[in-house]
Design brief:
Shape of chain B: globular
CATH topology of chain B: Sulfite Oxidase, Chain A, domain 2
Radius of gyration of chain B: 19 Å
Largest sheet of chain A: none
Largest sheet of chain B: 7 strands, mixed
Distance between the termini of chain B: 23 Å
Number of domains of chain A: 1
Number of helices of chain B: 9
Structural class of chain A: mainly alpha
Order of helices and strands of chain B: HHHHEEHEEHEEHEEEEHEEH
CATH architecture of chain B: Alpha-Beta Complex
Helix content of chain A: over 70%
Largest interface: A-B, 33 and 45 residues
Strand content of chain A: under 5%
Number of domains of chain B: 1
Oligomer: heterodimer
Helix content of chain B: 10-25%
Order of helices and strands of chain A: HHHHHHHHHHHH
Number of strands of chain B: 12
Shape of chain A: globular
Strand content of chain B: 15-25%
Structural class of chain B: alpha+beta
CATH class of chain B: Alpha Beta
Radius of gyration of chain A: 20 Å
């Protein structure tokens, strides 16, 4: 049973249809059925931004999940789609940015908008995502070498930090939305850190024996 | 920097969707078989306490050459944080069992005639209601034009006869954590509070609304009675008011407590003072559709003539 589910989840077609499906369901279908409400562009702006940041969070949660559950078939199946998920986060962020361009209406307002930290922080987060997306192909990995490539792609964490902050100031009370994302990612990373420490010190013994002391000492 | 110069009354006709198009849209949805999507706009709303007061448009507040925002949009695009953080949530969540009829409003504090009114009795006591078309400008840089039904706040102030030491009016919205899930958390300093200086409250534009387009307010618009201060940002308009108090010192207000650097106590519409995160120079007109263009924001939201004198000698940059 698990094996079949993992096989389905691990399939390229599954990943692509979920990633594209989210956009179709949340952005395109409502755009054609009047489901975007009184200010459709404002709605597209917010929803595309939300999709982008949740997708980014999804890809960042894959590494800690794999460390925490190395034997889970599902986690491993999901980990096969890191590149797709990461690139899709960038694409949704680009849609979000295009909405911002339209939203501002004219050049004066658009240029003026870049004087606000809210906007230039969002734009710098996007810039990181674009660099990472462009370098997400086998050729670049080979060209840069695995180590350098990995180092470069750690920028994803910086992008997440910047963009969660960007999200938290996007509207009155938006911290109350962004905080869930931040807490979820931080606790995953924390759990991952604890787990790596334990396995480093006690490579053979079962996790349970050393865990209590380790948690105290970290 | 190039700035469009347009007359103070300018609002483009293209910025408003004709009602026929909106009705047509529902038809379109139904023919698509999207029954659920179509009914989402026609759901039976909560009925507020202020039905049955006939009124007519006060010709002094007609706003010529301005198109009103369609009723559908005014009642589905709402900031009412008690009922959700997104614009479409209040029209759904506030109509799931929240009763705004009957409704009692209490007037107290530093005044000679403190009183408790069933909201309909209050309307009778001030001599009924009238309709006024007001521009509505949100601090988030969007705007509508709303035909409010209601009565001037000044009438209520006069009725209550504030004492000389009263300098401010404080408005308190409903508090009902049992029915309103958001109010069970401490994210915001519930209940919602707002305030005006007493002379602002006495200005002829300050208005207590009980309806829109001649119909009693729907829950999502702040039924059954709410504040409308058209020269200030929309968040000043306390919704679903249960208390009005006359006080000596500047009252605490929810948004000002939440972020004092973003939401000032005065909160006058002012294109010259930016919000920390966006410009207030222009605004998006709700109803303009996907490619809605912006229009320049007017000082005091176009009511400079009527209210500028209230702020003589006050630095509006510091006191935003």
């Amino acid at each position: 049973m698990m094996k079949t589910i993992a096989a389905i989840i691990g399939h390229k077609a599954f990943a692509l249809s979920v990633i594209i499906g989210i956009g179709v369901w949340l952005l395109i279908v409502p755009a054609f059925t009047g489901g975007l409400g009184a200010d459709p562009l404002d709605r597209l702006l917010h929803v595309s931004g939300e999709i982008a940041i949740w997708t980014l969070a999804a890809v960042l949660s894959l590494t800690p999940l794999r460390v925490l559950f190395p034997k889970s078939r599902i986690v491993n199946a999901l980990n096969r789609h890191r590149r797709y998920i990461g690139v899709s986060s960038c694409i949704y962020a680009l849609v979000h940015f295009s909405c911002h361009l339209l939203y501002q209406g004219d050049w004066d307002d658009l240029l003026a908008s870049f004087s606000k930290p809210f906007i230039w922080l969002g734009a710098s987060g996007l810039l990181i995502l674009v660099v990472l997306a462009i370098t997400s192909n086998n050729w670049t990995v080979r060209k840069l070498g695995g180590r350098n490539w990995k180092l470069l792609h750690r920028l994803a964490y910086l992008a997440a930090a910047i963009l969660i902050y960007h999200q938290s100031i996007a509207g009155k009370g938006h911290w109350y939305i962004a905080r869930w994302l931040l807490f979820a990612l931080l606790s995953l990373e924390l759990a991952r850190l604890v787990k790596t420490q334990i396995t480093k010190k006690n490579p053979r013994t079962a996790v349970t024996t050393g865990s209590r002391q380790e948690i105290k000492s970290t | 920097m190039y700035i469009h110069k347009k007359p103070s009354w300018y609002l483009p006709d293209s910025g408003v969707t004709p009602q026929a198009a909106y009705l047509g849209r529902r038809k379109f949805l139904r023919t698509l078989g999207m029954g659920a999507a179509a009914t989402a706009f026609t759901r039976v709303p909560g009925i507020s306490a202020t039905a049955g007061f006939p009124d007519t448009l006060n010709p002094s507040f007609k706003l010529s050459a301005v198109k009103l925002t369609p009723y559908d949009l005014i009642t589905t695009y709402n900031n009412f944080y008690e009922w959700g953080l997104s614009k479409d949530e209040p029209s759904k969540l506030s109509n799931q069992g929240w009763k705004t009829d009957p409704w009692t409003i209490e007037i107290g504090g530093l005044c000679a005639n403190p009183a408790k009114f069933a909201v309909n009795d209050l309307i009778k006591a001030v001599g009924g209601i009238e309709q006024r078309n007001y521009r509505h400008r949100c601090v988030e840089a969007w705007s509508m034009v709303v035909p409010w039904d209601g009565f001037p706040l000044a009438k209520l102030v006069t009725l209550s006869s504030p004492k000389p030491e009263a300098k401010y009016v404080q408005f308190t919205s409903f508090l009902d954590p049992k029915i309103c899930p958001a109010q069970r958390s401490n994210d915001f300093a519930w209940p919602f509070t707002e305030g005006l200086m007493l002379d602002e409250a006495m200005n002829e534009l300050a208005f207590l609304a009980t309806g829109i387009y001649g119909k009693p307010l729907l829950n999502q618009n702040g039924a059954p009675i709410r504040l409308v201060v058209p020269w200030k940002y929309g968040f000043k308009g306390a919704k679903s008011i249960v208390r009005i108090d006359f006080v000596a010192t500047q009252p605490k207000t929810l948004w000002n407590q939440y972020a004092p650097d973003e939401y000032g106590f005065l909160a006058n519409v002012n294109p010259e003072v930016d919000h920390p995160r966006w410009s207030q120079r222009s605004e998006r007109v709700i109803g303009g559709g996907f490619f809605s263009s912006r229009q320049p924001t007017l000082k005091f939201n176009g009511y400079e003539k009527e209210v500028a004198a209230l702020y003589a000698g006050i630095d509006l940059r510091k006191n935003f």
